[in-house]
């Protein structure tokens, strides 16, 4: 690690990595602080991590990462407030009591009363998260508080639906309006309602490089903006493979550019299908080189790789990241730093 260039010094935007507590000590933490200027908590700011039971907020794991950011002068990209996954069932349930006094959890209905319950839960969750990090680390946008952005809604797009919206529990109970509502609440809670506020508010999704998903997301975002929702930016996860044409990624960035929003690459990894060979790892190096050549043309608010090493990846079988399990730089690293170093 000592004798190779820092990735953050060779890319034009803030460079991020998904981490958890394992990256806050030892050699892994040195890798993170050497190569990255920002991180996303991989799981620790998700609803199930922060509010496993209604009204019982657990910020210890998130705060440990926030402390690591403060100590090492790293920016934090929050992930995520409203999602269909890793969100406890209680959000979408109520307790009913039968004639014998037996209590059962049943799904919230679409009655006005149940909708009000879920709306209040959304508000309480977002406001409590925003208030906790403000109280603990100081006002957003001031030294001490490292949070620069947040995924307000995650993976709400489904290109197979006529309106492009995933049929999640949020959608089932509240209908399409829940997305704008989440942004309104987040804007007030993090930025005091100031559209120029310090915490950039994102809609984040995967497969946005594919034309149908891209178009579905584009029209959802267009509608949100037309309705005045305080959306600051679009996050493209970019969980891709070597077979993914880079041209489609470029088409996606070009498609959203006229909207005048921020764009970020939020969860990049490039999986190898089948057996991992040296040849494939070199091919992956060229893929990262070509991809970053394209990305360099865009004024992205950040680019984040979804994990520090292949062994720490959610898709480790595809060895999709820049460093191997021994923390050694792969051809993928050299593809970004210096394609001349590739064989
Ligand atoms: O917390 C439990 C732990 O108590 C238990 O012992 C352990 C046993 O398997 O599981 C732990 O939960 C795991 C959780 O990560 C926290 O580590 C889950 O099994 C595991 O499925 C979960 O995976 C995460 C996944 O999101 C869940 O959807 C991955 O680490 C994380 O990389 C992944 O990230 C998502 C983004 O949030 C959204 N976009 C897609 C991306 C990749 O799936």
From TrEMBL:
Domain GH10 per the UniProt entry, residue ranges: 1-339
Family: Belongs to the glycosyl hydrolase 10 (cellulase F) family.
Protein name: Beta-xylanase
Taxonomic lineage from the root: Bacteria, Bacillati, Actinomycetota, Actinomycetes, Micrococcales
Residues of the full protein shown: 208 to 550 of 1170
């Amino acid at each position: 690690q000592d004798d190779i260039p820092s990735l953050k010094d060779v890319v034009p935007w803030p460079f991020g990595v998904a981490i958890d507590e394992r990256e806050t000590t030892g050699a892994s933490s040195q890798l993170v602080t050497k190569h990255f200027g920002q991180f996303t908590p991989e799981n620790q700011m998700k609803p199930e991590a922060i509010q496993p039971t209604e009204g019982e907020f657990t910020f210890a794991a998130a705060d440990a990462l926030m402390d690591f950011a403060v100590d090492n002068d790293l920016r934090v990209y929050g992930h995520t407030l409203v999602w269909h996954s890793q969100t406890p069932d209680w959000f979408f349930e109520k307790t009913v009591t039968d004639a014998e006094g037996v209590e059962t959890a049943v799904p919230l209905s679409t009655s006005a009363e149940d909708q009000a319950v879920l709306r209040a839960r959304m508000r309480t969750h977002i406001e409590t998260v925003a208030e906790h990090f403000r109280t603990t680390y100081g006002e957003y946008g001031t030294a001490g508080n490292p949070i620069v952005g947040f995924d307000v809604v995650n993976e709400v797009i489904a290109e197979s639906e006529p309106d492009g919206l995933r049929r999640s529990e949020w959608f089932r109970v509240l209908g399409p309006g829940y997305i704008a509502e989440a942004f309104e609440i987040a804007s007030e809670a993090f930025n005091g309602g100031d559209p120029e506020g310090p915490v950039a508010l994102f809609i984040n999704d995967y497969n946005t490089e594919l034309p149908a998903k891209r178009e579905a997301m584009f029209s959802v975002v267009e509608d949100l903006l037309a309705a005045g929702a305080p959306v600051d930016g679009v996050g493209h996860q970019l969980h891709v493979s070597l077979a993914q044409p880079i041209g489609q990624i470029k088409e996606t960035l070009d498609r959203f550019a006229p909207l005048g929003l921020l764009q970020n690459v939020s969860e990049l990894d490039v999986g190898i299908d089948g057996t991992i060979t040296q040849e494939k790892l070199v091919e992956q190096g060229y893929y990262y080189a070509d991809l970053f050549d394209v990305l360099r043309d865009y004024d992205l608010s950040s680019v984040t790789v979804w994990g520090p090493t292949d062994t720490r990846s959610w898709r480790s079988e595809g060895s999709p990241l820049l460093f191997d399990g021994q923390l050694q730089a792969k051809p993928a690293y050299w593809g970004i730093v210096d394609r001349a170093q590739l064989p």
